[in-house]
């Protein structure tokens, strides 16, 4: 029933003649990017700050998790976000990103994901430091936004501390959805935290795909976006389905 309601909402919004933005979307942890991988681009913002709040649910064979988040963007350069990963334990995820270079269609950023794992019991601490490059490319003659990510995770429980990832975003059936829905693909050896509720990359890589309704303006300067995600497709241990919605307030520059 929940899936049907989400799909109906997606169809209604896509068929409604409202303006859509091409940028400014969130990962599971609330940072601007793809599915679990951040992009080098911060959320779009001008002289006024951008505020986004949202919720994602993760459905797996073993549990159901809730991930509410809030995200702030400043001067089209900086971004911070806070998310809670609530399942059998509760984790706090703190994201920050700085875009230090933006030339043409290429952005370079550094970011940090601070993590407080199982806040009510063990209170483990971890951090993921990353460098990301985002640029335009093409996939089978369709325009694509591509990101390459490398980084390092500060945590003793992982078998490999060096992180890498590759992500793509391209229009999905553009003639049908009028370029309001994008197809997402990201893969690598890192997820959105060291203890994710879906898509566990501690000892291996993972592949994630999804569909994203680009932010649609339904009130003045207020935008709605939505996503369907399939996490860790090729391994049953971390495989999960996720759905999410986000509402953004983006004042005109």
Topology:
Blueprint: H1 2-15, E1 50-59, E2 64-74, E3 78-86, E4 90-103, E5 106-117, E6 124-139, E7 142-154, E8 162-171, H2 174-177, E9 181-188, E10 206-219, E11 222-231, E12 240-249
Antiparallel strand pairs: 1-2, 1-12, 2-3, 3-4, 4-5, 5-6, 6-7, 7-8, 8-9, 9-10, 10-11, 11-12
Note down, in words, how this protein is organized.
- The chain has 253 residues and is mainly β.
- The protein has one domain: monomeric porin ompg (Porin, Beta Barrel), CATH 2.40.160.40.
- The protein has helices at 2-15, 174-177; strands at 50-59, 64-74, 78-86, 90-103, 106-117, 124-139, 142-154, 162-171, 181-188, 206-219, 222-231, 240-249.
- It has a 12-stranded antiparallel barrel with strand order 1-2-3-4-5-6-7-8-9-10-11-12.
- Strand 6 and strand 7 form a beta hairpin.
- The chain is globular and about 45 Å long.
Short description:
Helix content is 7%, strand content 54%. It has 253 residues and is mainly beta.
Task: State the main characteristics.
Porin; single chain; 253 residues; disordered N terminus; mainly beta; twelve-stranded antiparallel beta barrel
Query: How would you spell out the order of helices and strands?
Result: HEEEEEEEEHEEEE
Tally of contiguous helical segments: 2
User: What coarse outline follows from CA principal-axis ratios?
Assistant: globular
Total DSSP E strands = 12
Radius of gyration: 17 Å
List unreliable stretches of 5+ residues.
Answer: 1-20
**Strand percentage, roughly?**
over 45%
Output the strand order for the largest sheet.
Answer: 1-2-3-4-5-6-7-8-9-10-11-12
Task: Write down the domain tally.
Answer: 1
Looking at the overall shape, the CATH architecture is Beta Barrel
Q: CATH class, please? A: Mainly Beta
N-C termini distance = 40 Å
Major β-sheet profile: 12 strands, antiparallel, barrel
CATH superfamily: monomeric porin ompg
Question: Percentage of helical residues?
Answer: under 10%
Q: Structural class of the secondary elements?
A: mainly beta
CATH topology: Porin
| Average pLDDT rating | 85
């Amino acid at each position: 029933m929940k899936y049907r309601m989400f799909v109906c909402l997606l169809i209604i919004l896509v068929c409604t003649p409202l303006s859509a933005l091409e940028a400014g979307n969130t990962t599971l942890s609330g940072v601007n990017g793809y599915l679990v991988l951040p992009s080098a681009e911060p959320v779009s913002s001008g002289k006024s700050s951008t505020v986004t709040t949202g919720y994602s649910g993760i459905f797996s064979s073993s549990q159901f998790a809730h991930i509410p988040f809030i995200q702030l963007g400043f001067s089209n350069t900086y971004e911070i976000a806070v998310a809670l990963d609530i399942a059998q334990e509760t984790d706090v995820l703190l994201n920050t990103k700085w875009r230090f270079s933006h030339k043409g269609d290429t952005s370079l950023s550094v970011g940090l994901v601070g993590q407080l794992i199982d806040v009510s019991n063990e209170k483990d601490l971890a951090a993921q430091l990353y460098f990301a490059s985002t640029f335009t490319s093409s996939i089978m003659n369709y325009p694509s936004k591509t990101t390459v990510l490398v980084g390092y995770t500060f945590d003793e429980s992982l078998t490999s501390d060096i992180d890498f990832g590759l992500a793509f975003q391209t229009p999905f059936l553009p003639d049908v959805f009028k370029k309001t829905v994008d197809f997402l693909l990201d893969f690598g050896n890192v997820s959105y935290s060291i203890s994710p509720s879906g898509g566990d990359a501690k000892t291996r890589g993972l592949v994630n795909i999804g569909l994203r309704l680009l932010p649609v303006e339904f009130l003045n300067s207020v935008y709605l976006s939505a996503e369907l995600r399939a996490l860790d497709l090729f391994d049953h241990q971390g495989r999960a389905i996720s759905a999410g919605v986000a509402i953004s307030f983006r004042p005109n520059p």
